[in-house]
Predict the structure.
Amino acid sequence: MFHHILCVLREVVIMQKREQRECQRDRDISGLLAAGAQAVRNAWPEGMVRRLGQRMPVVSLCMLWVTLSGVHPAVGAEGDTGDALSTASVSERTVMEEVSVDPVVVSETRTEKPLSQATGSVFVVTRDQLEQRQFPYLREVLRDVPGLTIVQSGSRGGATSLFTRGGEADFTMVMIDGVKVNDAGGGFDFANLTTTNVERIEVIKGPQSALYGSDAIGGVINIITRKGSGPTRVVGEIMGGVGRGDGSNMGTHQERVGVSGSTGKIDYSAEWTRMDHAGQYGLNNKFLNNVFSGNFGVRATDNLQFRSNFRYTDSTFQFPTDSVFGVGYPPIDPNQGQERTLLSFGTSATYQMNSWWEHVVQWSHLESRYKFYDFNDPIPSDFGASQTDGTQRRDMLDYHTNLRIGTGVWQGTAATFGVEFQEERMTQSSVGFTSASTGLSRRNMGYYAQLQGVYADRLFITPGIRVEENEYFGQFVNPKLSGAYIHKETGTKIRGSVGRGIRAPSFTELIGFPNFGIPGNFNLKPEEATSWEVGVDQDILGKNLTASVTWFHNDYTNLIVLNTGVNQNIQGAETEGLESQLRWRATPALSFVVTHTYLKTEVTDIGPGQNFGGLFVAGGRLLRRPEHSGNVQVDYRAKTWGVNLMVLGTGDRVDRDFSVGGSPRIKNTAYWRADVSGWYALGRFEGADWKAKLRIENLTDTHYQEAYGFQNPGIFAMAGLEAAF
């Protein structure tokens, strides 16, 4: 069946290529432009233009209207170009070209700039690295990044958290093509986030609230989707795998189909993936995940372009059924689970007024739905059937203008001014053991400015500031200053930054749990962070050997905890550490990467009263943050085959044992884990380039628990074929 689908797709491609040869004239897109402009105008929340008019200069409003008159999503603000789909070999791009290009990043400043000129801690995962590693989920890829800690609660599909430099799990803003996908208050579950249609990932560590506002208190992860270029290409993939589980062979199958290309002034890229996991337990532990992603652009004129992108995720996860502690402990409910859907959509427009003045407008929408269910069963401790349904929505409109004002030795200097409107809404209802229904909404305005100063292509200074006006917590000012100096003669780069970040209270923290006797608190203020870092990057042996070290410090205050029966801003903590990385390109095809993170965390203030659950202990470490972590990676890429070996190490962490009364704090032991992946180009036949792929996770079959009490999967192997037409 899969072969027949590929054959049909191949015939579609052949027919389209024949039509392109017969007719080369550009298509008339005026109707499309007009429809796009009207759609964006209709999508504006009521009263938004009036609110913007009260805050922005008249010239900016005039330019905003000119831009909307020919709406187009921004191309330059989303990422670099290139074929959107993988090939069966790397023969079209030599290995030396892949490793020598200075990547372009956009997330640090909202403008394109070479990674070598970044003033902060920026880490880029490229498309080639994603293809070499072969992991379908971003949580595994992000383990490579120094300073990030991933905690997966047991089997695939289990709640997965990310801690940036020891901050809380809701301190990192996650965006897809600039569209914020966190829940209100910063929460985000990485369990369902896949590499579907991803071109690259940009990770910026440290507070970014001066540019992105609330929830960027600890950092930003921007996932940039692929753009189509050239003739239409179709890629199909099918893989299957098994592994060691607890009463299950973890049988898994994965399918992927993608299409990309460009014609005239239009480019397109779309990809669908489906993953079915049997789970590591023998009953009620399946995980099903469907993802569809698209990216479409139109270049109306040389200085007018628009782009739209979307991502839809539909997943079902059945909770594990057997106690991870073995015989003698109460079994976990055998028939409960959760269903989640997430839709993100963004459409943006860029108008290049002249060589030095650019205007960008973006509208985005997020809709996240979830359902938790638990049916009746014979377990004595069962509380009876129950179900909770909830929805969170977010609409955002952002306008900013970029002015390139530098000449001569100041070439590259630019200023950015912007305004952002955001409205968040939630509804939730539950029936069963307790029944309740609630809803809440809030609006936020943000005004930001940034200067990128460049002198002699050596000195880079970037001050920025953002003012937040929220209808619940009022006004907050978030400044930031970063800088870097490059001594080209020795290949040395010295960089540093200092800034402030905030996280707005979540809807749950504001509302509380009235049906459990826990009232809400609408007087909560944002959690705050003051952070600084200093780093050095050193090129050795040309650029074949690069060393990087960064020392950071974070001071968190006004942390929200449940205290004496109500949520309060009373606690504080500090984190500091050293991130180190060594990259060595031994040959054009062979490279090595070694990373290490030292992290020290300490609770500095637990506040008055008795905090619920003892999550914070004065002078103690924060939960689930290892003091030492790191990895060693060996990568080899020839023209017809490639292999990657990754060894990850995580030191001991403090956690809690929920199987014992009072849930005491315990030490979760350190562990090592190895993953290996490889591919081989089989050649071209049946009109397609074929590639064989193999991936083995947890090669050493290590027994470990990232979250104490939740056993992580054992050794798992997956193999399959990819065909590119």
